[in-house]
Amino acid sequence: MTEAWREIPVSLVRGCRLGALAAVALVVLWAANGRASGFDDAKQAMAAEEQGDLDQAVAGYARAVEDAGFGAVSRGLLFAARGKALAAMGKFTDALKDYDKALALAPDQAVIRFNRGNLLFGMGRYDEAIADYTRAIDLDAADAAAYNNRGSAWFAKGNLESALANYNMAVRLVPADAEFVNNRGRVWSAMGEESKAREDFAQAKSLDPEVKTPLD
């Protein structure tokens, strides 16, 4: 049985980085021990996940993480990859356990912090999500998506000033991202700054006509 997942407006949170995680994992695993059986298991698991076969993905990651030839960072990335697959299956408690194991092994991997932050956000654990996004930003100060998602966590907590500050940073880093601009417009609207909100919604539409604003 899957657990309840908090309903989140899709545009508010930039999704988990499966592709980035997979790429980092493959590079690190190959450097660690490219001929190990665990490397093949990891490749097969990633391929299964891309094809939507999450059961096979989880099983493959479970085999790969047992390879004694991999170091701490390699195993951390594998636990994180399995956590991502478990979350996609709705097994959020198990996913969180894997992310916790991942960060115990590889605490300085920003992609793991970011993905665990998204999981915690979805579980309504906003303070913990903010802490993970903050650490991801500490590790990569140019991570616009982490600023955006931290802004969304502050927004969910009702702290509009902090939300605005984070959305401003996201937009400053990637001004052409329609979702970031749209999210900032939501905060302006919540603050009663309707003129600024409309400006952002119009800008978001000009950047991406498909983006859904509160004015649609």
TrEMBL record:
Residues 194-216 are annotated as: Disordered. TPR repeats lie at residues 76-109, 110-143, 144-177, 178-211. The keyword Thylakoid does not apply. Keywords: Repeat, TPR repeat. The keyword Nuclease does not apply. Coiled coil: none annotated. InterPro entries: TPR-like_helical_dom_sf, TPR_rpt, Ycf3. This is Tetratricopeptide repeat protein.
